[in-house]
Structures are given as C-alpha cells and as structure tokens.
C-alpha cells in the first residue's frame, strides 16, 4: 500500500523547485540591469521606504483659470471676491439652479419607467435632434436635407475634443487657427488632439475692441483648407464680438479661401438674452450651403455646469457624407468615454421639447443676461465716478460673461494682494461674479491699481 504522505511531499518539492527557479530568474534579471538604474523590482516591492515608480513626476502648475478659485478658497478675508471662474451668480452672490431645471428633474425622477441603461455611443437621440434645431434654427435647410450629424459630448470641452480628433484623423489639413487671445483651454485641446495650432489677430488692446483688419489679413494668408476656430458669440476672454456686417465679411473670406469654420458656442442666449440673436453667426455659415463644425455647451445657458452637457454638430455637403461622418465619430468616442451620461441630456431634452418649459427658460435666460448687462453699466458708472484715468467705455461695449478690463498682470497682482480680488492675470473678469454690493469694492481696487501701477 502506497504511503499517503508521498503525494503532498512531492507537491511540496515541486513547489519548492518552482520557487528556486523563480528566484534564480529574478537574480539573473536584476544582474542585467545597470547598477545605476533604479530597479523596477525594488520600486514595486519597497514601498516601506517611500520609493515610487512615479518619483520623477514633477508638480504641475495650477490651471490658470481654475487655479484662481483655489487661491480664492484659501484666502480667509471676509471681503474676498472671485471674478475668475465663468459661472453665473445671483445678486446675492449665490450659484443659481434654474426653476425650470428643477421642474424638469422632478419630472424625470417621477417617471418610474426611466432606467439607467447605457446610452448609444452618439448619446440621447432626442437631445441631439433638439440641440441641432436650437443652434441652426427650426427651418434650417441643412437639417431638412439631413446634412447634419450631431453627437452628445461632455459639455463644450468634450465637444471640441471629439471634433478635433475627428479632424486630425479624417481632414486633409491639420492646422487650426485660433483667435489671439482665446479661452486658455483651446490650444491644449487642439494640440493634444493632433492638430497644429496657429493664431490670428482678434483683439486690439489700443481700442479694446476687434482688430478686424488684422483678423482678415491673418486668415487671408492662411493655407487653403485650414481650420478656423470662431466664437459664436460672447468671445472669451475679451467680450468683443464682430458686428453682423463684419461677420459677413469674415464669412466671405473664409468661403473664398476654402477654410473650414469650427464654431465654439458656449453662450447661446446667455450673451444678448436672445437664442436666435446669439446664433446668427453660425446660421450665416450654414445658410450659404457650406460645411462647418459647431460645439455646443449647456453649462452657462441652463446652469448645468457640473452635468457636463454638450453636443458636436458637423454640417456636411450631403446626407450620405453626414451618415459616414457619424460612423467615424463613433470610433472617436468609443475608446474615449464609450458613451455620454444620461441625466443632464435628459434635463435639456425635457425643457427643449416642452413649449411652456422652453418659454420659461427663455425668460430666465433674458433675466441672467440683463443682470450681467446691468453689472457692466454699474461698474462703468463707478469707474467714471471715481475719475479713473482712461476710457472705460469698453466695459459696456463688450458682451457676455467676461470683460477684458485692460489691466496688466502687475495691476492684477496688486488687486489680489491689497483688495483680495481674484481674476486671471490677463485682467479678464467675470461680470456674472459681480453684484451691486461688490461693484464699489472692485472700482476702488481698480482705481488704486491704476493710480499706483500706471
């Protein structure tokens, strides 16, 4: 009869042999590594002494916009004022959730048939359809002819990134011209997507208005087919928009040169208070039958900042091309985030489909835009009342959430240190962050900054 203990002994011996072979293998592998090189094995197994395979990573600088809020939050001063972040605030300085948004959410919550299943790669179909109509118009020939493909994306940033990656893969010209200055995230989004970024003249610091001739000269010398980023309205950071006549001149140049317009529409309805008025520039480029891209965001105009709701629309030459473009957009989105979130898009679709809710939303939009316009007027009057040197009329001429004050980085630093007012170093301020009580404080700070740091 065989000894029953033999099997476990043999198993144990085999296990010991495997351990010995593994140990010899590790020793021989480690001997092949340059003694001056950090050992991967040591890094992975010696956590007790604080070593890390990421020890070489350097601390990155704060985002120039979001970093303003971080600095603001650390300041204990009771009079501190944050004018850096692009988020709407009420007259009381509080974040605002629109009543119509609350009603839409209540509808969604009370709908017991709703589920949390994945959306398609392209997102919520109804949201896409209604978003296209919102920016292009109900009677848009491009929509009527099925030449528009729209996909739900992660707010404006995500829409820009998906569009940029699609262009980097499928468009023959990989150079994009962006205005100087522009939103700080634009260069990063386009560069990381694989496009080459160049700039065109936009802002005139002397007049604090549009440098239309510089713009036309730069785009006129761009290579045929180059992509051109255009702010649909309420240019960020300057608040300077072309007039309709200037838009028409820009359109004619872009079409004559065969350039491809890529609109960033982050403020539709939020700038002037009118949805149609703020979409006029985009619609001019669609009515002419040409192709373009449009990135939409509902962060500002519906106050859905944290829901990350946006859409990318590509207007194509034919319905067949639009269908093929959509198929390739899916291949961009799938490995990036697979499919978009459902909640925010459902809120937007609920409001856009319901006539009463839609009308209530337009009233809210007008109220928000009007409050910002009133803050411009109050600030202008406060600056003029203090006799501050210079012409400050650009405060009321500019439009939208932001004002390019004309203050330099030294003056901005002075205002932060002495008056606890936070803004980006280029002097851009969010008018939505002001209220009647804080306007005098800002005016006093600007007065002191200009006087001491002229």
Automatic annotation (TrEMBL):
Keyword Glycoprotein recorded: no
Record keyword Transferase present: yes
Highest taxon listed in the record's lineage: Eukaryota
Enzyme class per UniProt: transferase
Keywords carried by this UniProt record: Aminotransferase, Pyridoxal phosphate, Transferase
Catalytic activity: L-aspartate + 2-oxoglutarate = oxaloacetate + L-glutamate
One MF annotation (Gene Ontology) recorded for this entry: L-aspartate:2-oxoglutarate aminotransferase activity
Pfam name, any one: Aminotran_1_2
Database matches in SUPFAM superfamilies: PLP-dependent transferases
Required co-factors: pyridoxal 5'-phosphate
InterPro entries: Aminotransferase_I/II_large, Asp_trans, NHTrfase_class1_PyrdxlP-BS, PyrdxlP-dep_Trfase, PyrdxlP-dep_Trfase_major, PyrdxlP-dep_Trfase_small
EC number: 2.6.1.1
Domain Aminotransferase class I/classII large: from-to ranges: 80-446
PROSITE patterns: AA_TRANSFER_CLASS_1 (PS00105)
Gene Ontology process terms (BP): amino acid metabolic process
Family: Belongs to the class-I pyridoxal-phosphate-dependent aminotransferase family.
Leftover remarks: In eukaryotes there are cytoplasmic, mitochondrial and chloroplastic isozymes.
UniProt-listed NCBIfam families: PRK09257.1
Quaternary data: Homodimer.
Protein name: Aspartate aminotransferase
Species per Swiss-Prot/TrEMBL record: Nepenthes gracilis (Slender pitcher plant)
């Amino acid at each position: 009869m065989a000894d029953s203990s033999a099997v476990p002994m043999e198993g144990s011996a085999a296990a010991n042999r495997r351990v010995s072979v593994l140990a010899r293998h590790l020793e021989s592998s480690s001997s092949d590594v340059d003694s001056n090189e950090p050992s991967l094995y040591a890094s992975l197994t010696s956590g007790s002494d604080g070593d890390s395979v990421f020890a070489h990573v350097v601390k990155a600088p704060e985002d120039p916009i979001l970093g303003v809020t971080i600095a603001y939050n650390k300041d204990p001063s009771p009079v501190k004022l944050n004018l850096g972040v692009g988020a709407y605030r009420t007259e009381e300085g509080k974040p605002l959730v629109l009543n119509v948004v609350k009603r839409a959410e209540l509808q969604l919550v009370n709908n017991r048939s709703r589920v949390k299943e994945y959306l398609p790669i392209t997102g919520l179909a109804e949201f896409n359809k209604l978003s296209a109509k919102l920016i292009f118009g109900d009677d848009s020939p491009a929509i009527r002819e099925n030449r528009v493909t729209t996909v739900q994306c992660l707010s404006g940033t995500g829409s820009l990134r998906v569009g940029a990656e699609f262009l980097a893969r499928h468009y023959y010209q990989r150079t994009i011209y962006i205005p100087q200055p522009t939103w700080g995230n634009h260069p990063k989004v386009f560069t990381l997507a694989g496009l080459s970024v160049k700039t065109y003249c936009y802002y005139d610091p002397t007049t604090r208005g549009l440098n239309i001739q510089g713009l036309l000269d730069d785009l006129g010398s761009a290579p045929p087919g180059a992509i051109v980023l255009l702010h649909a309205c309420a240019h960020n950071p300057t608040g300077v928009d072309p007039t309709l006549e200037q838009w028409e001149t820009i359109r004619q140049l872009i079409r004559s040169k065969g350039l491809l317009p890529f609109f960033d529409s982050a403020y539709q309805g939020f700038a002037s208070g009118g949805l149609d008025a703020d979409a006029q520039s985009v619609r001019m480029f669609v009515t002419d039958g040409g192709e373009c891209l449009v990135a939409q965001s509902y962060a500002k105009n519906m106050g859905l900042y944290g829901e990350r709701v946006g859409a990318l629309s590509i207007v194509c030459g034919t319905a067949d091309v639009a269908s093929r473009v959509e198929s390739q957009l899916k291949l961009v989105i799938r490995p990036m985030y697979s499919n978009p979130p459902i909640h925010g898009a459902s809120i937007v679709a609920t409001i856009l489909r319901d006539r009463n809710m839609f009308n209530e939303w337009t009233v809210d939009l007008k109220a928000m835009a009007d409050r910002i316009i009133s803050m411009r007027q109050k600030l202008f009057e406060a600056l003029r009342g203090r006799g501050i040197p210079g012409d400050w009329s650009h405060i009321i001429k500019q439009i939208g959430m932001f004002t390019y004050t004309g203050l330099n980085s030294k003056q901005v630093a002075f205002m932060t240190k002495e008056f606890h007012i936070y803004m980006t170093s280029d002097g851009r301020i969010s008018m939505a962050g002001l209220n009647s009580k804080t306007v005098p404080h800002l005016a006093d700070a600007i007065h002191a900054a200009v006087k001491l740091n002229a």
